[in-house]
Amino acid sequence: MDSTPPPSSSSAFDLVSRALGRYIPRGGAAPDAGPADARADRTRRRRGTEDPAAGRQEQILGAVNLDRDLIITRCNLDAPVFAGLDAVVGKPFVNLLPHGDVPTVTRRLRQVLETGEAHVARIQRLRRADGSELVVSMSILPAAAPEEGLTVSLIAMARRLHLYAAETAIGTSLDIGETAQSLAESLLAWGDVAAVDLDFAVWTGEGVTGQAKGRIRLRRAALVPDRAWPEGYVTPGEDLPGDASRLLAQAVLRDDAPQTIVIPDREAVERVLGSPRVVRALVPGDRSAGVACIPLVLDGAPPVVLGVAEVWRRADFPFRDNELLDLQELVARTAHHVDLARQHQREHTQVLALQRRLLPRTGGDTIEIASVYQPATPDSAGVGGDWVNSFPLPDGRTALVVGDVVGHGLGAAATMGQLSMEARALLSAGLAPDEVLEHLDETVSLLDDADTGLTAGYSALGSTCCIALYDPVSHRVTLSSAGHLPPVLVSPDGRAGPLEVRPHPGLGAEFALREPFDVHTFGAPPGSLLALYTDGLVEDPAVSIDEGIGRLADAVSTVHPWDTLQRAARHVVSALAPARQRDDVTLLLARMIGYRKGDTATWRLPARDDAPARARTQVSVLLRQWRTKDDTRDDVVLLISELVTNAVRFATGPVTVRLIRSGHGLLCEVGDTGSGSPRLRRGGLLDDGGRGLHIAHRLTTRWGVRWTDTGKVVWARVAT
């Protein structure tokens, strides 16, 4: 092996080598031990003999340097515990690995080379020349500049250290699949193949209490090592056959108490499993003869079995009692991690279902909508409070809403759902975007004081929201924002950029910081594309937020008018979203279509007594041109006449009449400069007041009021 480098070097390999010099003698075995004694000592260690004197060398550190082709360039594995490893300069590092582990470890080595991010404390087996194996904790570190390649440090695992390292590794993720995979990788130290089969209810995050004996339905959650498996063998993500699930359940729940079982050889395995189909499903190969099945038990009264861990071995390496105790201790220590992952999965599923329900379904005749929602990666804090919504308003406009609620989990989801529904109700009632944000601001402040329900102990202060209303007749968008990132607009000629929206504090800001919400109006001619999004799509630690928004604008500008909008939205997200999402990613694309010119008509009439008669004449002529049915034409003429009469009697200034033809009927609008709120009241038999609204109520499918900067508009929809 190479000699130890000069002390002046600062590479990871040299630091490890200098540490070795302080803890082990150079040359490996003790100087006074002869060749026969050294061989006997190595044999004892390989066979796992419990020798107290050897306990001092159970945890030994070694290091190997690799070039970019993963060839060994330097090596310091002088400790006796590493004896028998064929670690020779000039040979591939993968020669030290069991064949089944080569693909996975090679992938990890390449990943560290490409990213420069270390992979620390991987529980790994190394193959000795005589076929025995050594369990180590392996860390892969990028070489320090100016050197290239990798430094692989190895710690030969003592039994207690292995249990501690395994439990630590298993508890690092809240994703149930990754938790099961970590458990299987740790169990591999005791066998050739390790599998973790979980109750289907655990896998989906459902409750697991009160299960009857033998009713466990198992799904394979993890399997190591990574190799080609025989046909019919159950791999991760697949359900075990019903017979296999029942047999395992009966085996580990003997006398209603979870117990570890060991089947020592292939003949006994086939006799216990019975069916050839079950043997093909559970036995990983011809060399696998003995198996230990250890239940994952959640303590309680009675205890609940979450699943079964299986460790397979060759027939010439039977399980010893101390190994079974170690296996049971490891599984018992980590069962609560599996249950924590189950609870996280349950919450994740519930929040995700709420997120999906809030996504817009379709746009309509005047606008095309596409949305993409990607939750954060499973090992993050949980699904966040990002939400988008798009819905047609009864007066013919379309609302586009995007928000980002502070935090993650059920508290954020409950607040998100409440804000989304409140915004929809207020917009449908005719309130302007800035007025809606004022109500949402007050709601967030009130929720911060809540001490009951799903929001107990949770604060949504600082949440953001952006509301845009698209008018398909004027082809204009009215927008207000509360601390949200500016939308991106792509004009029909392909120019793209963020809209100039004045910054505003988020919802629930302190009273001293509160300002009126600004209203921005801009043109959006047919063919324009509007992108609303949350910060998870554009935030990148490596670049500024402005550069991230610029990247989004560039990506959206490449969307062709003939492209399918949903496919384009997915393409934009895949191009911009980070591989490991620490936050939710949300994108809403809206392609403006609007009404054709011939489908709308607008008249401005002076507020005089002859205004109703003039309106009846002009509307009647237009409806004949549109070839409207006689009974519908009569209803619309009467409706317009009554609404104009009300505008002349109770308001001032000019009266605006607008008629819109859509595929579902006629939308009639009458605007004036009054600020009063028309209300439908129950009147007497001879009471003439409020007759116009009663007529509107009976002749239309829906009617309402919206307020403008100069007054109000009463609208009504008539079916054709």
Task: Walk me through the structure.
A hairpin with a 2-residue loop joins strand 22 and strand 23 (665-672). The longest helix has 38 residues, at 321-358. 33% of the residues lie in helices and 24% in strands. With 720 residues, the protein is of the alpha+beta class. The chain is elongated, with a radius of gyration of 36 Å.
| Secondary structure: helix percent | 25-40%
Unreliable spans are 1-9, 21-59, 683-689
Q: How many β-strand runs? A: 25
- Specify the overall morphology: elongated
Please state the average pLDDT score.
Answer: 78
Strand order of the largest sheet: 2-1-5-4-3
- State the end-to-end CA separation: 91 Å
- Class based on secondary structure composition and strand pairing: alpha+beta
Enumerate how many helices there are, as a single number.
17
Report the radius of gyration as a whole number of Å. Answer: 36 Å
Largest sheet: 5 strands, antiparallel
Percent strand equals 15-25%
